[in-house]
Every structure is written in C-alpha cells, then in structure tokens.
Amino acid sequence: MRFQRVSDWPARLAHVVEAERLRPFAWGTADCCLFVGDCILAMTGIDPASEFRGRYKTARGAQRCLRRYCGGGVEALAEKIAAEYRMPEILPKMAQRGDAVLLRTPECPPEGKSVGICVGVLMAAQGPQGLTMVPVERVLRAWRV
Fold it and tell me: Which of 8, 56, 94, 110 is most buried as measured by Cβ atoms within 10 A of its Cβ?
C-alpha cells in the first residue's frame, strides 16, 4: 500500500498541527508516534498508527507495543511503516512539508529519538513539553509521505 495525499492536505495538516498545540503530552493519546499518525491520517485518509491507538497509557506500555510491532524503538517503527507504505527515504535536508522525520531529541529518553512531521523550515514533534518545533539540524532521517 502507498499513501496518496488528498487534494486539501495542506489545510488538513495545518489543522492537526494547530490542534496539537493545545494538547499536553500524554502517552497513548498525544505522543510523538500518534501525532505523526494523526498527521498522515489527515493528509491521506490512512492511519499508520491504528495498531497503537488505545493500547497503552504509559512509557512502558508504549515500549511494549513497539517491541511487539517492530522489535524496537521509534526508529525501527519508522523503518517498518516506511517499508509497509512504500515511503521512500530521502535526505533530511530534502524534507518538505508533510514528510515524516526521525529526530534527535535528547529530552525524550530512553532513546533520545522521536518522530515528527516537516511543517516547512521546522519539524513538529510531540514531546514531554507538548508540541515542539525543531530545526532541520536535528533530523536524523526523513521519508516522503
């Protein structure tokens, strides 16, 4: 299966990002993986995070879900979803609005990595302090949605 963006995807993405600004971080409802899933769902109508919704409420629960699904953390998750939905990997500096990214986020233990969405010159990611805008210099990997 491959993602195909709907015609009004920029407005839909902007709506999800704006709504996320108002939500505090919460495992299983407002975390980095579900935020990216929400963005991709809004842009394409397909939810790559459907297997995780409602399945955990803690960091430990999230880690268990990741281990079951992909054997590891958020990078392994991003790789598996990218392969499943045939999302080509691109150079981080080539990420455009709506592309998925893997970020270096020291504030997100234990891995120090999270996933986010390119929203222009910055990347949006849900983290412990809520929605954060991150510069491209912290992008480790990127995939075209």
Answer: 56
Chain centre distance of CA 68 = 18
Element (H, E) at 113: strand 113-118
Using one digit for the tens of pLDDT, what is the confidence trace for 68-98? 999 989 999 999 999 999 999 999 999 999 9
CATH class entry, domain 9-143:
alpha beta
Contacts (Cβ under 8 Å, ≥6 apart) of 70: 76, 77, 79, 80
SS3 assignment, position 84: helix
Burial 68-90 (b: 16+ CB within 10 A, else e): eebeebbbebbbbbbeebebebb
Rounded to whole angstroms, the Cα distance separating 130 from 26 reads 9
> Structure pTM?
0.93
